[in-house]
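The following record pairs a protein chain with its ligand, magnesium ion.
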Amino acid sequence: MREITKRLTRSPEETHQLGLTLARTLNRGDCVALRGDLGSGKTCLTQGLCEGLSVKEYVTSPTFVLINEYAGAAPDGGVLPVYHFDLYRLGDPDELYELGCDDFFYGKGICIVEWANLGGDLIPKEAIEVDLTHEGDRLRQVIITGRAL
Ligand SMILES: Nc1ncnc2c1ncn2[C@@H]1O[C@H](COP(=O)(O)OP(=O)(O)OP(=O)(O)O)[C@@H](O)[C@H]1O
Ligand SMILES: [Mg+2]
């Protein structure tokens, strides 16, 4: 039985903060699969996740590449690689497979995947799923499956 956390956020700052809170529950090897329409807040939540993982670089969605790598920090001070995927422009899951995604998804870093629905079966079954939906101009519903906050 997977835990389910439901939250409503009323501003980008609140979504960012939710990412920060979720980051505190993450461990090496975790994958966060984000789903939601354009502008639903996936990158905003990713920025909060990355801040929570002590990434110092500016986090933005990879535009011409499928994946960005950042250096986060583990609680013990060691380097924690953070892999940020954006599958919006993915033509076919095979492209993701050929990129060697399994090495990232089943490796020792943390993966954050925007438009994870486009990755099909390549997304690990154990991934923490985050579904974001517009509830209005600034209201977003965020449902997190696989992690209790
Ligand atoms: N509660 C909220 N949470 C997050 N973003 C919000 C909220 N209210 C308004 N916004 C606005 O919605 C937009 C969310 O953009 P963001 O890039 O995070 O979405 P996205 O899901 O990554 O979109 P895309 O699929 O285009 O990458 C921003 O312009 C942000 O200011
Ligand atoms: Mg985005």
